[in-house]
Amino acid sequence: MSTKEELLEQMKNGVVEYQEDVVKEAAQAYLDAGHLALDGVMDGLAAGMQVVGELYDANEYFVPEVLMCADALYAGLDILRPHIPKKEDDVNAQVVIGSIQGDVHDIGKNLVKMMFDVAGWDVHDLGRDVPLEKFVEEQLRTDSEVVAMSAMMTTTMLGMKKVIEMIKEKNPNVGIMLGGAPVTKDVANLFGADGYAESAGNAVSEGIKMISRLREMREK
């Protein structure tokens, strides 16, 4: 029988080598052995995605490989996540996420979505080319604490400012996070956003870095 460390390593390597079956088997064996699901997510799956981020930054992996790695991560997450206990006094945080109207790019958005998934948030994914009003409607419907918007073109980016104004008018306490290639910190501040996923280099590596940050925060 494999030790906890061996199973974590199998999950981690399975994500890096985009082997969904290996990840599923290791995740199931890990649960069957009675180990904590959250450790499996953070020290197995997310640790693997951190390595993927390094390979991506080094130009050894490209977007297709990253997406296959993400599929393997999700295969493990589907098994482990139902076993992560919800905190009694703390309802799981919620986020509405989507690529803005006119924008069909969603790779970076999908990786940021995965970061929220790994963190145990309830994610309401609107997909790509999302009408501006839909962000507002979904936030009001779900009462989500965060709205995350992605844009990869300067022309579509301007829609973000309108969404922020519409949401803040109805609910000033919502945190709004922007990301995407043309978005800079200055733009986010100018538009009135609360947060900014720095992704001028690339939205993909940013999504992965945020997963790494979550792991570091948990270890403190």
Short summary of the structure?
The chain is of the alpha/beta class and 220 residues long. Helices cover 59% and strands 10% of the residues.
Total number of beta strands: 5
Share in helix: 55-70%
Number of helices: 9
Q: Using the CA coordinates, give the radius of gyration.
A: 18 Å
- Secondary-structure arrangement, i.e. CATH architecture of the largest domain: 3-Layer(aba) Sandwich
Alpha-beta classification: alpha/beta
CATH topology heading of the largest domain: Rossmann fold
What is the topology, as strand order, of the major beta sheet?
Answer: 2-1-3-4-5
**Could you give the distance between the termini?**
31 Å
Number of domains: 2
Output the CATH homologous superfamily of the largest domain.
Cobalamin-binding domain
Q: What percent of residues are in strands?
A: 5-15%
- The pLDDT mean sits at 86
Which residues form runs of ≥5 with pLDDT under 50? none
For the largest beta-sheet, the strand count, sense and barrel status come to: 5 strands, parallel
- What series of H and E elements makes up the topology? HHHHEHEHEHEHEH
- The CATH class designation of the largest domain is Alpha Beta
Overall form: globular
Q: What report would you give on this structure?
A:
This protein is an alpha/beta fold and 220 residues long. It folds into two domains: 82 residues, Methionine synthase domain (Methyltransferase, Methionine Synthase (B12-binding Domains), Chain A, domain 1), CATH 1.10.1240; 114 residues, 3-Layer(aba) Sandwich (Rossmann fold), CATH 3.40.50.280. Helix content is 59%, strand content 10%. The protein contains nine helices and five strands, in the order ααααβαβαβαβαβα. The chain has a five-stranded parallel beta sheet with strand order 2-1-3-4-5, sandwiched between helices. The longest helix is centred in the N-terminal third of the chain and has 21 residues. The protein starts with a helix and ends with a helix.
